[in-house]
């Protein structure tokens, strides 16, 4: 059954159209992602990317744009957020904002600075 659905010409055409929409979104947002540096805020970046993805995929029939939005947000939370924050901390973002400083008091870690 699965092979009949995935091999059907209509499904293949639909799949290609979704890939084209995603590629257009990715192409439009690549400069924003590559240009992100220590002057930026990760929360603002992901909000902008996610809202643009939502708006882009609302036009695609048979696809739940909110599911695509949620998938991006889940991926961000599981994978990207830590990488972006670690990269920013290595290039001096912590000094600029005081973000995620860890202080030990009576054996506890206390997070200081704004949360993402």
Describe the 3D structure.
68% of the residues lie in helices and 9% in strands. With 116 residues, it is mainly alpha-helical. The chain has a two-stranded antiparallel sheet with strand order 1-2. The protein is elongated and about 50 Å long. It starts with a helix and ends with a strand.
Globally, the shape reads elongated
Task: Spell the H/E element sequence.
Answer: HHHHHEE
Helix/strand-derived category reads mainly alpha
Oligomeric state, counting identical vs distinct chains: single chain
Beta content: 5-15%
The residue ranges in which pLDDT falls below 50 over 5 or more consecutive positions are 94-106, 111-116
- Order of strands, main sheet, comes to 1-2
End-to-end Cα distance, whole Å, is: 44 Å
Share of helix among residues?
55-70%
What gyration radius follows from the Cα positions, in whole Å? 19 Å
The overall pLDDT, averaged over residues, is 79
Note the main sheet.
2 strands, antiparallel
Please provide the count of β strands: 2
Please describe the topology of this protein.
Layout: H1 2-7, H2 9-34, H3 42-57, H4 65-90, H5 93-97, E1 101-105, E2 108-112
Antiparallel strand pairs: 1-2
Short description:
With 116 residues, the chain is mainly alpha-helical. It is 68% helix and 9% strand.
Tag the structure with descriptive keywords:
116 residues, mainly alpha, two-stranded antiparallel ribbon, 68% helix, elongated
């Amino acid at each position: 059954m699965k092979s009949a659905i995935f091999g059907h010409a209509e499904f293949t055409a639909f799949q290609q159209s979704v890939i084209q929409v995603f590629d257009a979104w990715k192409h439009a947002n690549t400069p924003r992602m590559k240009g992100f540096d220590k002057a930026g805020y990760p929360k603002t970046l992901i909000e902008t990317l996610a809202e643009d993805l939502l708006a882009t995929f609302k036009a695609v029939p048979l696809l739940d744009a909110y599911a695509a939005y949620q998938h991006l947000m889940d991926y961000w939370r599981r994978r990207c957020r830590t990488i972006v924050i670690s990269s920013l901390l290595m290039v001096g973002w912590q000094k600029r904002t005081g973000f995620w400083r860890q202080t030990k008091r009576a054996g506890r870690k206390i997070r200081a600075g704004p949360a993402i």
